[in-house]
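1st attempt posting a full record on here, be nice pls
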Amino acid sequence: MKTPLKEPNNFVCAPALKALLPPESIIKSFMFFSGQIEFPLINEGHTLVAYTNKPVIFEFWRSVVSDAHRVAAHAVGMHMPGAHPETVSLYQSQWPTYRDSFMRSGVFFLLNRYSQTGTVSHGSFKIDNFSPFAIEALKNFSSDAHKFNLKLYESEDVEEGFVSLNADDILLIPAGTFSYNLLTQDILEGYETYNIHHRRLKEALLNTNQRFVLCYKKHPGLLRLYDDQQIILVSKFGKPTAHFDLAEDMIIHNLPPNE
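the predicted structure (as tokens):
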């Protein structure tokens, strides 16, 4: 099971995460986007339910699970080699208004693949990033679609979804990039963008009494914010490292030592 999307955070911590989690865990993953972190865990035999509070993300994956080939056909139909940059910018600003859900999902995929970093509604792009290999990856997802369970909840705050958790669940959050600005305020960049209040997220996690695992890109501020939790630094090769300078990702967790 492999994601057809480009992941904006480009996580490298999946191997370390797989080594950390107890076998056959029940995982509830929030802030779902590409599945880069989550799908390898399904392949390892874990039971995973993903959650999003972003309707555009939910719609894309619902369309792909329903008919990946139809989404691919729309992406190919909307792709314009050599298009003027203003055309792509128009796609970025207007794609949620298109009349058909499969068309919207096709453009969602197209913009994600155009993007230099995997964003959809904003950011720099290069039309040549879109290729037949990307379309084949999208079509091939249909063979694994039955393994994927994604739920939508209606709240602007990520942590509001935690009420659905059971005591035995492990809470997984691919939180991505840490920012001091988001300690105190939210900054929205696109329809698909998750913005989290990092301090409030930590408070919510501790209030759940839940086992949790956070995946971040490395940042020294996280060492201070989570100085009371276990932190694993992960190198660009996906292996734990003791050296912050060599780290690419950070895994923050409260799993017991025997797990």
